[in-house]
Amino acid sequence: MVSVAILGAAGGIGQPLSLLMKLNTNVTRLHLYDIVNVPGVAADISHVATNSEVKSFLGPSKLPDAVTDIDLAIIPAGVPRKPGMTRDDLFKINAGIVKGLVEAIAENSPRAFICIISNPVNSTVPIAAEVLAKKGCYDPRRLFGVTTLDVVRASRFVKDIRPKVDAATLRVPVVGGHSGTTIVPLLSLASPPVELSEKEVEELTNRIQFGGDEVVKAKDGAGSATLSMAYAGARFADSLIRAQQSGVAVVEPAFVALDADPEGAAEYRNLGAGSLRFFAVPVELGPSGIKRIVPLNATISTYERKAIAVAADALAINIDTGVAFATPPA
Ligand code: NAD
Ligand code: LMR
Description:
Blueprint lengths: L2 E5 L6 H9 L6 E6 L3 H9 L6 E6 L4 H4 L5 E4 L15 H18 L4 E4 L4 H14 L8 E3 L2 H14 L12 E3 L6 E3 L12 H12 L1 H9 L7 H20 L3 E8 L4 H12 L4 E9 L2 E5 L8 H25 L4
Parallel strand pairs: 1-2, 1-4, 2-3, 4-5, 5-6
Antiparallel strand pairs: 7-8, 9-10, 10-11
Catalytic activity: (S)-malate + NAD(+) = oxaloacetate + NADH + H(+)
Keywords: NAD, Oxidoreductase, Tricarboxylic acid cycle
Pfam families: Ldh_1_C (PF02866), Ldh_1_N (PF00056)
């Protein structure tokens, strides 16, 4: 039995993500929550011939029911960027949305896994951690900022310049955070290995860091990535569910609290994460969420080390902003 709630289910990401979760045969109950339009989305998706039950929850009065008895909450609620905006520009609106939703999850399903898609992820995840801690149910192994789209882009963008590569199986670790220069692809550790010139590494790194902007620009005011994000979010949720159900080790990257596994985090701290509370790292998932932070077991390039240092400076500010919002300094 796996019950999944999608909060923000009527949105650009929410709709295709809800459909993909309806297609996931491990899911038995799907709760779709939004403040608009969700009855139609739920009615539509409920006709898809898989065994899960779909329920619709419209508006704040239905939020507690939407997040009662759930195993996993996925949060794509909030406003997306328009051209000229940074993800940090979304903080003003999305911080409060994420805070309210996580409070409701803490009160009604305190053991649920929580996957946060709403931007700025570098700040909304720290907000969620603070909220959960205040409610007495914070478990760093169960909270995830979804950065899967960065690794999806990394594989696909390498394919664009090396057509023989299989984009579906190529893995590039991406560490740091989820915005601009906080996104650090470790192309030197691509698996299987890919030979790249210095110039190619720089160009690819820049494209992966600013891949979101390509979509924002192309959508020209109509939002940001939705379909590729739904794919990435569904992939991450599926990994989490499979790891929980089967106990088989599944590795995915995510923006997580490094104290979920202090031992595993040590290598990333040495590489430049320093004393940061949160960092995107590859995590091995298991029945209780994060089983361990997976070591790189390899030397990264000087270029990548410098990129991590740049990311860490920006991340420190993003993380502090989230924490200060949820727990204002006295
Ligand atoms: P959207 O505007 O199409 O959809 C957002 C949905 O959230 C809407 O249906 C809206 O009604 C709903 N919503 C607003 N306030 C809510 C509340 N309090 N409770 C429940 N639902 C609420 O936006 P989108 O394109 O789906 O993007 C959503 C978020 O995901 C944005 O913040 C965007 O920046 C982010 N995003 C993150 C990634 C990532 O890699 N993590 C990728 C793409 C987009
Ligand atoms: C992305 O990477 O596509 C998302 O974070 C959305 C955005 O604002 O770029």
